[in-house]
Amino acid sequence: MAEARQRKWHVFQTKDELSVAIAKYTAHLSAKFCKEKGLFTVVLSGGGLIDWLCKLLEPPYKDSIEWSKWHVFWVDERVGIPNKNIYAIDKHYAADGNAEHCAALYEECLRNLVKQNILPLCPNGKYPQFDLQLLGMGPDGHMASLFPGHPQINVKDKWVTHITDSPKLPPRRITFTLPVINSASYNLMAVCDDHTEQCPRSIADIFKHNNLALPAAHLTAHVETMWYLDKAAASLL
Question: Label partner for 148 (CA 20 to 30 A): which of 26, 163, 202, 210?
Fold first, then answer.
């Protein structure tokens, strides 16, 4: 375990070890928040991260996690979570339709959940506070759909924003804004199975130089910001 600039990180030798660690971390926080407030709000990013969560569907976690108390955002439906507790972005609508309108609809959904006391506001009262966000980083240092050189990283007056010229397909997307991401109680960034040469360079730029040109370098959280890296991603640290 290591720490620098309030970031904690751990390097894993295999994808399986990293998957087990993500499951353990998530299960611990699920138990903590379900006990404290009767529910658990978790944000999942797409890509390989969903596959890395497969250990949650195996013993000892599968039968011990209180799935019915989970409220899940940006997720593909794989476990026994009630449909009413899943708040997914319609990626096809965002990609093929009006991304700006889609972002507004998703923000309205979040604001309604605040009114229903499912989502609390963070201490400054401006943004929703999720219990845990499980994030991934692209080789260029992007996270969510916040990309280097694009203005969405600077949006502060919205909870959800949109992009129409994403450098990664599809070009039209919607994304949580940086203040919403950083308002989470816990943020876990997992970087694994990226075989590009750019990925370890981006990791080194973030951890050694705090290169804020890379969106992932801005990642913080109210309680803990944890990075789980495989040995390839951490090779230049």
Answer: 26
